[in-house]
Amino acid sequence: xxxxxxxxxxxxxxAPLPCSLEVFLRAQQLLPRSVVVEHNGEAVVPSEFAQxxxxxxxxxxxxxIVAGG
Length: 69
Known about the structure:
Order of helices and strands: EEEHEEEE
Oligomer: single chain
Number of strands: 7
Number of helices: 1
Strand order of the largest sheet: 2-1-7-4-5
Helix content: 10-25%
Largest sheet: 5 strands, mixed
Number of domains: 1
Shape: globular
Distance between the termini: 48 Å
CATH architecture: Roll
Structural class: mainly beta
CATH superfamily: Beta-grasp domain
């Protein structure tokens, strides 16, 4: 049986499904407040990360927020 995967930034990533977007981000060593996420083409606000359920084959675009000037 093939492990469940999510497509994150165009790459297949193994995911502990079912899980929330927040759990997935933490498993990737990403702090939820340090990224902007699009889930299957829809922008997700950070307050929804814990409730947003991921399923096999979902597509995520994850952009890190970088401070500086």
